[in-house]
Design goal:
By secondary structure, the chain is α+β, with helices and mostly antiparallel strands. Strands 2-3-1-4 form a four-stranded antiparallel sheet. The radius of gyration is 15 Å and the shape is globular. The protein starts with a helix and ends in a 15-residue tail after the last helix. About 25% of the residues are buried.
Length: about 130
């Protein structure tokens, strides 16, 4: 029961005003990433490789600080819960650049050549 609650991020579900991030990093980096956000509340799973982090609401959902901290560790972050206005202004998934970003753009375009399905919802410009 306990591990199912952890897997479902239930400890962060009660307070709906907080923004929730799912962060994947090498397991040894999880505690440092979590410690970088004393204003938040979170917990580790997967031996430290999965960080669930809840932050107070802010205009950019803490994206710049999170992506900077996570990028230094070779990980990525996904915004799981935020109001629609914040989700519309912040990349929900880790921004992809270079060849990987170009590939993601081509795949999206092949499924949605007219860009009518949720434009900008996953990545700005896609």
């Amino acid at each position: 029961m306990f591990w199912r609650e952890i897997g479902n991020a239930e400890p962060l579900a009660a307070e709906t005003k907080r923004l929730v991030w799912k962060i994947s990093v090498p397991p040894a980096a999880g505690p440092a990433v979590l410690a970088a956000f004393p204003e938040g509340e979170g917990f580790l799973d997967w031996g430290g490789g999965l960080v669930w982090l809840a932050l107070p609401e802010s205009p950019d959902a803490g994206a710049q600080k999170i992506r900077s901290a996570v990028g230094k560790q070779g990980g990525h972050a996904t915004l799981i819960r935020a109001p629609a206005a914040i989700r519309a202004s912040v990349d929900v998934f880790e921004p992809q650049t270079g060849p990987l970003g170009a590939l993601a753009g081509r795949v999206k375009h092949s499924f949605d050549p007219e860009t009518i399905f949720n434009p900008g919802r996953l990545y700005a410009g896609l």
